[in-house]
Design a protein that fits this description.
mainly beta, Beta-clip-like, three-stranded antiparallel sheet, 14 strands, binds zinc ion
């Protein structure tokens, strides 16, 4: 088992149970895919977009927390990849709301912001954005 779920002060998180190499697909967002209009209220904060549908992911991927200096990213197939070597005991994090300028230019309507996604970040990164209330385009 490469990953483990731990209880945190506010919810849960996913941690490396062993040293993980860069580039490895650690897990994948999988679950039912629905149009935005059919995303249940309780799932709004968990869904991830793939094409024109929204995947309602199961654990452990749905439990991976946001980080402003993440050690993981999500590929086009919704695989979670290590961006750098991750040490045993480190929490896995993904930047939920950063997009490439090319992706935004190709489909600006896909990068709308739902106010229910806004949250105060406490990831502890030196460059933490503090308040996540819109897409950061890079
Ligand atoms: Zn942060």
């Amino acid at each position: 088992m490469r990953l483990e779920v731990r209880e945190l002060a506010f919810g849960r998180g996913v941690f490396a149970a062993e040293d993980l190499p860069v580039g490895l697909i650690l897990t994948r967002y999988t679950g039912p895919a629905v149009p935005w209009s059919e995303v249940p209220e309780a799932e709004v904060a968990h869904v991830i977009k793939q094409g024109q549908r929204w995947v309602i992911p199961g654990a452990p991927a749905r439990l991976i927390n946001h980080g402003c200096a993440p050690n993981c990213d999500v590929d086009d197939t919704l695989g979670v990849l290590a961006l750098r070597p991750i040490r045993a005991g480190e929490e896995l994090t993904i930047d939920y709301h950063t997009a490439s300028a090319a992706d935004v230019a190709a489909d600006p309507a896909a990068y709308f912001w739902d106010p229910r996604w806004t949250f105060a970040c406490q990831c502890g990164a030196a460059d933490c954005r503090r308040r996540i209330d819109g897409w950061r385009v890079v």
